[in-house]
Write a structure and sequence with these properties.
Blueprint: E1 8-9, H1 12-40, H2 54-73, H3 79-93, H4 98-116, H5 122-133, H6 142-147, H7 152-162, H8 169-175, E2 176-177
Parallel strand pairs: 1-2
Helix pairs in contact: 1-2, 1-3, 2-4, 2-5, 3-4, 4-5, 5-7
Length: 178
């Protein structure tokens, strides 16, 4: 057996297609499990009512988080080109202009950064953003509700769930090269 692996060559268009389609499929198949985990979590004193636009917000948070992880993994490549391809594809899927979808991404990134400050932990920021976007503070015990902060035990459990929605760039780079 040979001591090396042969990686398939790909380009940014194929990479962004794989990423976008995989992320959409992952959300379609896993979103309801996340909602059930939230509703069943013991930190809430009453059943959380999830907003009607929660799935869209969830996807936007995942896109922003995954793009942040992308920046960490593709230092040698043209990250801007990959990001542009991703934005173009999502804009096309959702019937928005590139500028509109890019604006949504920027606003979501700012939202995550605001509620994650001063931490730089991307996953933690994603969990806190979901907590805020889903208005989960209203359903917590009075101590955390009065402080308007998430229960850290819940955030830890949500982190553990969200890790399953993070694209594994290392595995991708073992199979493909740009």
């Amino acid at each position: 057996m040979l001591g090396f692996s042969i990686r398939k060559k790909t380009d940014t268009n194929k990479l962004s297609n794989i990423f976008v389609n995989s992320l959409i499929e992952l959300v379609e198949n896993g979103y309801q499990d996340v909602i059930e985990m939230i509703k069943d979590d013991a930190v809430f004193v009453s059943d959380p009512e999830i907003p009607s636009n929660a799935k869209q917000q969830f996807l936007l948070i995942l896109i922003v988080g995954n793009v942040e992880f992308l920046r960490d993994r593709f230092e040698d490549y043209s990250v801007e080109e990959i990001e542009l391809e991703i934005v173009q594809k999502f804009a096309n899927i959702y019937g928005k202009s590139e500028a509109e979808f890019s604006s949504l991404i920027v606003k979501t990134a700012e939202y995550i950064s605001h509620y994650n400050f001063p931490s730089k932990n991307i996953l933690y920021g994603m969990s806190k953003a979901i907590f805020r976007k889903f208005n989960l503070s209203d359903y917590q015990e009075s101590y955390f509700k009065s402080q308007n902060v998430p229960n850290p035990l819940f955030i830890k459990r949500l982190d553990e769930v969200l890790i399953n929605f993070i694209w594994d760039w290392d595995v991708f780079l073992k199979k493909y090269k740009l």
